[in-house]
Amino acid sequence: MKPCTNRYYKSLLILRGSHLRVVGGEAKGRRIKSFRNLGARPTTERVRAGLFSILDSYGLQDRQALDLYSGTGSLGIEAISRGAKFVDFVESDSKRCALIRNTLDDLGFSDRGKVYCMKAENAVNKFGRNYDLILMDPPYTLGPVNDILVKIGDIMLDNGIVVVGHSKRDTLENSYHNINMFTERKYGDTIVSIYRQGGE
After folding, report:
1. All structural domains of the chain with their residue ranges
2. What is the DSSP letter of 154?
3. Could you read off the pLDDT of 145-174 as tens digits, one per residue?
4. pLDDT tens, 31-40?
5. What's the rounded Cα separation, in Å, for the pair 46 and 109?
6. What is the topology classification, in CATH, of domain 9-197?
7. What is 21-85 written as a DSSP string?
8. Which of helix, strand or coil describes residue 2?
9. 189 burial class (0-12, 13-18, 19+ CB within 10 angstroms)?
10. How far apart are CA 149 and CA 151, in angstroms?
11. Which of 27, 37, 38, 119 counts the highest number of beta carbons within 10 A?
């Protein structure tokens, strides 16, 4: 298990891409690189703005975060911009891994994030660390990610928060192991379910 390298950096430079922007924090307005032909479904700025307005009320400063199914890395990068101490990014596609790392370098966040090229299902319990913020925005084609939600309570710090983006067609449970849902927001076809470790 090694951090992703810049193996695909040169090939990414010649791809025709589009850009998202960081919504808030120290990197507000800066670009998050995204390439349509890499097949990622980036979390929209509207969803990120709504989500982080909730998370800001709980404080993001100095949180240790895990961004599973990172895609473009937009959720983890937004967390760093708003004060998270460190983010581990987990993404299975090599080109997307290189894209995230390149964005971290561009934003000056390379010392506050590490990218792992592996399946999210294999990442839980692999790093030997606990987190107080876990971000998950898996592809809708995966359906409910119940198996991971059962496991991640074991790597949560007290009162840690878990965020899950999913299709409105998928219903998640109110509780998994020792994490409990405390709010849910709808944004078009997307639902954001937010859980807290150890209590409702």
Report:
1. 9-197
2. G
3. 888 999 998 899 999 999 999 988 888 999
4. 888 765 444 5
5. 23
6. Rossmann fold (3.40.50)
7. E--SSTTTT-EEEE-GGGT--PPPHHHHHHHHHHHHTT--TT-EEEEES-TT-HHHHHHHHTT-S
8. coil
9. exposed
10. 5
11. 27
